[in-house]
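Lab notebook, design round three. We kept the backbone fixed and only want residue identities now. Task for the bench partner: fill in a sequence for the structure below.
Input structure tokens:
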């Protein structure tokens, strides 16, 4: 069962954005970080199969330009009233009878309700504003320290150009109710019969404050001797970078170009990422090859180190801020070659990756950052389930199941029904089953009457990230045995 906030985002974006240009906000907590003119950072993806999140860098465009002056006003749309109501019911029943031996029968039903009524508006930067701003304002000198850090790490910078904003506070409730019943009769010298029934309900409520950002659009900044805004990127040519890369043969930093999982197979840029993505097969075989390359680096680690790594990751997964802190620390470490000590669960992971001198073990940190980036793509519910499976077992079955879904759904650009192998589902197929939750949270449509999901093209990124997480975590847990 997806979070109530996520359900709101999906409903609104589905209604207002048929082109797929709006980027949904991933949490209510971070929604204030995506105002017009705010700057966002995004690292180059270590995977072909999902995109890293945009992250606030706590700056706006005026913070990096001079002379200092407020940003121009944005255009506001008329209020848009959205109403969405869903009341669904799924039922299934079955019966088994053996002559002269007995009979058993059972049924189950799931009821989902969701209702949304809210007013939103769009705030948009006039595209013509940028030419005027470029004439009037220039890059601040010396360059802002945050930009220097992003440049050194090879990250790109984007500016928010449009947002979808709530106009009034809204309270949203999502309810799921399950009912089940069964009866049986055993015949013989002593006959025995019985019946039972039960129900369970779950309710999620979220209050979204007025002025919250639900989705946004960005344009990439280009920064060299001066600045520019790339409003319409040419997708047929090589991807442009915010900062001009060093000349060929010069490494950005001691860690940025090391141990790419695809090195030796594809042409790499000087920052260690793939320059020609056309050499990567964008299907399940390509995903397997990419994940396998990362897993090979982690193979052969000592049992003690695997145990410490997994214990640290379990602690980090229980706290979303810790996951983001670890991601940032590893990225900085790969840029400069060393990391500073941090308090809390993050330090338990970093201790496994840092020499006594403070230098980062780059060869090992690369695959761990790949895993952390994949974990960051998942929902909170999915990460909680991974923690549970790490502690109780079950990673292997889910790894095979998700792999089966990805293999059957290729090519991923088309919607289709995908059957799930019964032997991989375990003893249950219901909204509380781990397989159900993992797949539903990826954005796949699950069916209760038969073990089957409907593949949705937009679910590719999170499903591929889930596969990578299961593969690497299962590999580490096996090495602990």
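Proposed sequence:
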């Amino acid at each position: 069962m997806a979070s109530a906030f996520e359900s709101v985002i999906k409903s609104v974006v589905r209604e207002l954005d048929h082109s797929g240009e709006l980027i949904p906000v991933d949490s209510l907590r971070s929604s204030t970080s995506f105002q017009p003119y705010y700057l966002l950072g995004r690292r180059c993806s270590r995977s072909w199969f999902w995109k890293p999140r945009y992250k606030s860098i706590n700056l706006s465009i005026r913070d990096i330009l001079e002379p200092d002056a407020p940003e121009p006003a944005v255009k506001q749309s008329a209020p848009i009233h959205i109403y969405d109501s869903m009341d669904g019911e799924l039922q299934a029943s079955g019966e088994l009878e053996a002559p002269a031996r007995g009979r058993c029968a059972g049924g189950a039903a799931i009821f989902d309700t969701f209702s949304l009524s809210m007013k939103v508006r769009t705030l948009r930067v006039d595209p013509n504003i940028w030419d005027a701003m470029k004439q009037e304002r220039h890059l601040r000198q010396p360059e802002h320290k945050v930009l220097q850090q992003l440049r050194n790490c090879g990250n790109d910078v984007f500016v928010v150009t449009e947002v979808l904003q709530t106009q009034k506070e809204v309270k949203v409730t999502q309810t799921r109710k399950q009912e089940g019943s069964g009866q049986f009769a055993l015949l013989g010298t002593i006959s025995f019969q019985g019946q039972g029934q039960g129900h369970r309900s779950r309710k999620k409520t979220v209050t979204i404050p007025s002025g919250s950002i639900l989705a946004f659009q960005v344009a990439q900044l280009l920064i060299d001797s001066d600045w520019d805004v790339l409003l319409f990127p040419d997708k047929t040519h090589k991807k442009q970078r915010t900062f001009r890369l060093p000349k060929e043969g010069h490494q950005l930093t001691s860690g940025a170009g090391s141990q790419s999982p695809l090195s030796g197979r594809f042409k790499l840029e000087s920052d260690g990422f793939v320059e020609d993505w056309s050499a990567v097969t964008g299907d399940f075989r390509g995903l397997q090859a990419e994940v396998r390359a990362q897993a090979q680096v982690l193979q052969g680690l000592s049992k003690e180190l695997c145990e410490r790594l997994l214990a640290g990751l379990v602690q980090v997964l229980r706290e979303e801020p810790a996951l983001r802190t670890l991601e940032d620390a590893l990225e900085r470490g790969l840029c400069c070659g060393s990391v500073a000590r941090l308090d809390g669960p993050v330090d338990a992971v970093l201790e496994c990756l840092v020499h006594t001198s403070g230098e980062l073990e780059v060869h090992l940190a690369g695959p761990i950052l790949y895993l952390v980036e994949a974990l960051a793509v998942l929902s909170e519910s999915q990460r909680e389930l991974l923690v549970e499976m790490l502690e109780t077992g079950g990673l292997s079955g889910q790894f095979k199941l998700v792999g089966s879904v990805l293999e059957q759904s290729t090519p991923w650009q088309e919607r289709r029904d995908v059957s799930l192998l019964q032997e991989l589902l375990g003893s249950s197929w219901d909204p509380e089953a781990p397989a159900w939750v993992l797949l539903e949270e990826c954005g796949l449509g699950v069916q209760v009457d038969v073990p089957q999901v409907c593949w949705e093209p937009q679910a590719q990124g999170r499903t591929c990230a889930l596969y990578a997480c299961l593969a690497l975590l299962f590999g580490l847990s096996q090495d602990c045995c």
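Keep this in mind before ordering anything: The first strand starts at residue 23 and ends at 24.
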